[in-house]
Specification:
The complex is a heterodimer of chains A (257) and B (521). Chain A is mostly helical. Chain A has a domain of 126 residues: Four Helix Bundle (Hemerythrin (Met), subunit A) (Up-down Bundle). The longest helix of chain A has 33 residues. The N terminus of chain A is likely disordered. Chain B is mainly α. Chain B folds into 2 domains: 99 residues, no CATH class; 312 residues, no CATH class. Helix content of chain B is 68%, strand content 0%. Chain B is built from 17 helices and no strands. In chain B, helix 10 runs antiparallel to helix 12 and helix 10 runs antiparallel to helix 16. The chains are: A mainly alpha (257), B mainly alpha (521). Chains A and B meet through helix 4 and helix 5 of A and helix 6, helix 7 and helix 8 of B.
């Protein structure tokens, strides 16, 4: 029994460019060796694929690894401190604290996942995890309305559209994003500025209360404020979205008449 | 021996110690259960039916008793104790024991420790979470069995008849066991990590939706201020798992299924949300408990019958909810006759079962939302005044409470109404043909969307006019309420009559298609 198309019964090995008789055609050549930027340097030197050309990615990987380690250690230390404080009877809400640090660590990891993954759909999935975990943080802080709205707007709407767009437009099933060196460094500078300013803001902030027992803002109040004090921005956002919708409909209109 | 050449690279099946252990457990269960199960299957079924409500009732009574006892025992009246709260580990058992002896509780020596454990909020939460998880497991298992029975009846078959004795009631459990023990296959060309993770993206949100879903006035795990939004968000998040699973399978049928799902969900979320806005405008709140509370008092006070726009919104919501949980006639993401199984083509075993669990749980959640928002929630159609008279007639408060919980309001009513709506979903699925994707989008964008917009506008005007509260308008609203209620009664009666008529006049297939349904049994 030979192969129906070619007549050869030789078993194929992985990574052959010949399209299979059924199913999605494989990409001609693998765009990447599949190693992430955190793979050991030894493996990188041996790798001949075009995505590991220079040192910038390695530098970024090392910096990121350091950042993760620092953030993780800091998070664990802070969590331990909080736990100790709770056990000594200084602060209430051990469970909230533990959950907060767990979720926050998850957010950091998933954000790193967005930065480090190269497949566009994987990035979207990491973004999904990030948005979900941030919504979980909102739920922990009793801001249910905010969390639910975040999930509806960003996950149910934007993210689905994003993945949908990738599915419609990408030529190969494994759409990859290769960033240039200057993009990486530019993004790094922006992130650094943001980080420093956030730290400054955090240092200046006055924390009102440590207790997690404050009830959340009632939804009715949010609605009232939205339709009285902030009615102008609310309507402006609505008009903006409407204009976007009309513009999109115009662009997508069939021009042949 | 001929070597078949296959377009995929073959590999030896690898079984780790965990897999071997699972297989050994499965074989052991099979060896022990096979001779015994058929004899006791009906007994198990009936016992579960009886014991589960009793267990739930006992837990509820225990919690209520705990709150009372702890409130009496503590000086400051401290009903909820946070786990890990500083300086206190709850009331000591001795203090609770003294209260119990004064209240003449039977077995106070044991009860004081039970009450001591139950005074912590986290313990009660864990028990309730366990109950929610159990319901989450039982609902799909039951719904799948029911769907297969209904499908069989509608197609002049018997449906499930063998496993478990009575009408194959244990088929879902047997299927579950089979699916768990199957090999966990991941296609070589798939995106491995995403393929493995996708079912969890679907099932976790559908489980989370149960967290905010009230089953009764006090039967809710977390009474959220914006419970409706929360559940809507969970229904929206569920799509991501379907899309990611379809994409990661690296199969064109899966991809088509995923794209259809994305397209359908993004468009149908709008009429769904708009239709839900109608009862929200009528009730003036997003809290499901509050909305359910406002519909106390019998058939004519249900929200669907209060104004014509809400009545129409119920219909549009039902149609949009069919699309939201990808049920026929909107089951294009898994159109069996076109796309093999759509986004689930490459899935098998437990991951496939997870997708199914999520789908049926979403069906239940959607039906429960419809019940709470339009059909009176956990309130029975009987007038509430009868319930008050029962209390005076019976005399015994505990008995009256139990009877009221069964007859007038309570989770059983919500489950019953959900069952009716679920049955409607099944009925629709097995009688209507699947519509094309362009028809799906036409129905959404050009029919449902303008219609729901009009409904929202009409409801707003209706509520605005009723706020003025003139006497003439009140009479008009009352007459409209009666007419709508009567129409609803006619619909309900027609539903029952048609279903019963179909069941009584069921016929086997004629001609050569007719055969012994249990040949070989």
């Amino acid at each position: 029994m030979g192969n129906q198309e070619g007549g050869t019964s030789k078993p194929r090995r992985g990574g052959v460019s010949k399209p299979r008789p059924g199913g999605m055609p494989k990409p001609k050549a693998p765009a990447c060796c599949g190693m992430g930027p955190l793979a050991p340097q030894r493996a990188w030197r041996r790798c001949a694929c075009p995505c590991h050309p220079g040192a910038h990615r390695r530098v970024a990987a090392v910096v990121l690894a350091l950042a993760v380690t620092l953030a993780g250690t800091g998070g664990v230390a802070m969590a331990a401190g909080e736990t100790a404080g709770v056990v000594r009877g200084e602060q209430p809400g051990l469970l909230e604290a533990v959950l907060f640090y767990l979720v926050a660590t998850g957010v950091v990891i998933s954000v790193l996942g967005i930065c480090l993954s190269r497949s566009v759909v994987r990035m979207a999935v990491w973004l999904f995890v990030t948005l979900g975990l941030v919504a979980l943080l909102y739920f922990l802080l009793a801001a249910t309305f905010l969390g639910a709205i975040q999930l509806i707007v960003y996950v149910g709407g934007t993210l689905v559209l994003l993945v949908f767009g990738v599915m419609l437009t990408s030529r190969s099933p494994w759409a990859r994003y290769n960033c240039r060196a200057w993009e990486l460094y530019g993004a790094g500078v922006v992130c650094l500025v943001l980080l420093v300013s956030l730290c400054l803001l955090l240092g200046r902030a006055e924390w009102v209360g440590t207790q997690a027992t404050t009830p959340g803002v009632p939804v009715a109040r949010i609605g009232e404020v939205l339709l009285s004090k902030y009615v102008l921005p609310f309507e402006a956002a609505g008009v903006l979205l409407f204009i976007v919708m009309v513009g999109a409909a115009h662009l997508a209109r069939d021009t042949k008449k | 021996m001929t070597q078949f050449s296959v377009p995929w690279t073959s590999r030896k099946p690898r079984f780790g110690p965990f897999g071997r252990l699972l297989a050994a457990i499965g074989k052991g269960i099979y060896a022990v259960a096979t001779p015994i199960l058929p004899r006791v299957a009906l007994l198990i079924f009936l016992a579960t039916l009886v014991v589960t409500p009793l267990l739930v009732w006992a837990c509820g009574e225990l919690f209520a008793f705990t709150l009372v006892a702890v409130g009496e025992a503590s000086p400051a009246g401290q009903p909820d104790v946070e786990w890990g709260a500083p300086s206190t580990w709850g009331l000591p058992p001795a203090a609770i024991g003294s209260v119990l002896t004064t209240r003449a509780t039977p077995a106070a020596g044991l009860m004081k420790y039970v009450v001591w454990i139950c005074q912590f909020r986290i313990v009660r939460d864990l028990v309730i979470l366990g109950a929610i998880f159990a319901l989450f497991c039982i609902v799909p298992a039951f719904a799948i069995w029911w769907e297969r029975k209904v499908a069989g009846r509608i197609q002049s078959r018997l449906g499930l008849m063998r496993v478990g004795g009575w009408h194959g009631w244990a088929q879902s459990a047997a299927d579950g066991l089979k699916l768990v023990l199957k090999e966990d296959l991941v296609p070589a060309g798939a995106d491995q990590a995403l393929f493995r993770a996708a079912p969890y993206f679907t099932i976790i949100p559908s489980l989370c939706a149960f967290v905010a879903l009230p089953f009764g006035l006090l039967w809710v795990f977390r009474e959220l201020d914006s419970a409706l939004l929360f559940i809507l968000a969970m229904l929206g998040v569920e799509v991501v798992g379907v899309i990611v699973g379809g994409w990661a399978s690296n199969n064109k049928w899966s991809l088509y299924g995923a794209m259809r799902e994305a397209c359908q969900m993004v468009s149908y979320e709008i009429p769904l949300g708009m239709a839900l806005l109608v009862p929200v405008i009528c009730a003036g709140t997003l809290s499901l408990v509050e909305i359910g509370k406002q519909q106390t008092g019998g058939w004519f006070s249900w929200l669907a019958f209060t104004n014509p726009f809400a009545f129409a919104a119920f219909v549009t919501y039902f149609i949009a909810s069919l699309a939201a949980c990808k049920r026929a006639p909107f089951d294009l993401p898994e159109a069996e006759s076109e796309l093999v199984a759509g986004f689930m083509t490459e899935y098998s075993g437990f991951r496939w079962a997870l997708f199914f669990f999520a789908e049926y749980a979403a069906m239940f959640v959607v039906a429960a939302l419809a019940c709470i928002l339009f059909l009176g929630g956990w309130n029975s159609p009987l007038p509430a005044a009868w319930g008050d008279s029962i209390t005076t007639v019976l005399g015994s408060a505990a008995l009256a409470r139990g009877l009221k919980g069964v007859l007038f309001s309570g989770p059983l009513w919500l489950l019953f109404k959900c069952g009716v709506l679920l049955y409607t979903q099944l009925w629709v699925r097995w009688t209507l043909p699947r519509i094309r994707i362009d028809q799906v989008l036409y129905a959404c964008v050009q029919v449902l969307l303008p219609l729901t917009m009009l409904l929202v506008l009409g409801t707003a005007v209706w509520v605005w006019v009723s706020m003025s509260g003139s006497a003439g308008w009140e009479w008009f609203a009352r007459i409209v309420n009666w007419i709508l209620g009567l129409i609803g009664l006619v619909f309900a009666a027609g539903f029952v009559v048609i279903a019963v008529y179909g069941f009584i006049h069921r016929r086997p297939l004629v001609g050569y298609l007719a055969m012994d349904p249990l040949s070989g049994a």
